[in-house]
Specification:
single chain, 372 residues, alpha+beta, eight-stranded mixed beta sheet
Length: 372
């Protein structure tokens, strides 16, 4: 193991904690932490009955970290008790030796007080101090919202998703989210997402903590019936997977996806998205609002703000919008927002078991400028 000096820190509730490298004498306690976490069978790839490591095997495993310059085994200790651990191993071949993967385990009693973040930050500091490690990788369950949020706060980005990677039983699948922290990557410093305000609304980036509200509102059959792409039923994990893609889409210039939040109550009430076609300098706007907030003019208010952002900030030339023929109310929103009906696309959408016509609206920048 590369050189590492023990560090003393404080948890969120101001409990002193020592983070240090593990040694052979820690084998019994580390084994206890591993078994305890696996017994919960939550967010783990290894089932508890598959873990059969003996104390002697545990000691050999610890020794393998002590003998390698590309490995690090940390323990978090409170009052001489090991309450968590983090293990990192670099790639075993020359061409991937600059990267590595890690895992972290915290006893249930000691979670949510920042120990995982302290271990992770210690790993990052150690990796930066080496002349070897340039990139840290991890995999996390798509349903582990708390962990994904914590990793993002520490600079990790989502690189991709492996669909149905984890299977807990018949028809019970979970996606695996691939994340990384690349010390040499210019995209590690993410581009700042815009926040727009209107008289009554804040249009802001959606967070994973919004996923339950998104699922509840978008899960309405009435929302699904009047939109082109929202599924019904709206299954667990769909909102999380969608939200996780927003920052990447924004940085690539593909779309800007806002949550609609009421200024008066901070309540999330819907979504509005600007889907950009850069080569043709135009974008399409899509939106929906939860049933409880229909007929209050929120969509029109949000539309006008996003249109201004599209023309002034994104320097686009045209905005388009469309609605299903059975949802004429949406057409009124488009007209109130300054768009003009351009025509019909016959049987453009197949949803459920039938085809629907869609009605297309458009607004040119030159027309918008005249009425600003």
């Amino acid at each position: 193991m590369a050189e590492f000096r023990s560090v003393s820190k404080l948890t969120k509730n101001n409990v002193p904690i020592l983070i240090r490298s593990a040694n052979i004498q820690d084998a019994e306690q580390i084994l206890f932490v591993s078994k305890s976490v696996l017994d919960e069978e939550v967010f783990q790839l290894t089932a508890s009955h598959e873990f059969k490591m003996s104390l002697d095997q545990e000691k050999k495993w610890i020794q393998s970290f002590l003998d390698s310059t590309g490995k690090l085994l940390l323990v978090a200790e409170i009052e001489n008790q090991i309450v968590g651990q983090l293990d990192f191993s670099s790639g075993h071949r020359q061409r991937i030796s600059h990267t590595g993967d890690f895992g972290v385990s915290i006893l249930k009693k000691y979670r949510n007080i920042g120990i995982g973040s302290l271990l992770l930050q210690t790993l990052i500091e150690w990796a930066k101090s080496t002349n070897q490690i340039e990139k840290i990788n991890l995999q996390v369950h798509s349903t582990n919202i708390h962990a994904i949020s914590a990793y993002k706060k520490n600079g990790f980005i989502v690189e991709g998703t492996r669909k149905n990677e984890i299977k807990y039983g018949d028809n019970n699948y979970v996606d695996s989210v691939l994340m990384s922290l690349n010390f040499n990557s210019p995209i590690r410093q993410k581009i700042e997402f815009p926040i727009l305000t209107t008289d009554r609304l804040i249009l802001r980036p959606l967070q994973l903590s919004d996923s339950k509200d998104i699922q509840r509102m978008a899960g309405s059959s009435k929302i699904a019936a009047t939109t082109a792409t929202i599924p019904h039923p709206y299954l667990d994990g769909v909102a999380e997977e969608w939200i996780l893609k927003h920052q990447e889409w924004f940085e690539k210039g593909l779309s800007v996806d806002f949550g609609m939040q009421l200024k008066s109550t901070d309540q999330l009430i819907g979504n509005i998205s600007l889907m950009i076609n850069k080569s043709n300098q135009r974008a399409e706007i899509g939106y929906w609002v939860g049933e409880d907030h229909w007929n209050n003019g929120y969509c029109t208010e949000a539309m006008k703000a996003v249109i201004g952002y599209a023309f002034e900030i994104k320097k686009l030339n045209k905005i388009t919008c469309r609605h299903i023929e059975i949802n004429p109310q949406s057409g009124k929103v488009m007209e109130k927002s300054g768009l003009t009906k351009e025509g019909y696309l016959r049987q453009e959408l197949f949803k459920g078991d039938q085809f629907y016509d869609t009605v297309v609206y458009g607004l040119l920048k030159s027309e918008w400028i005249k009425h600003v």
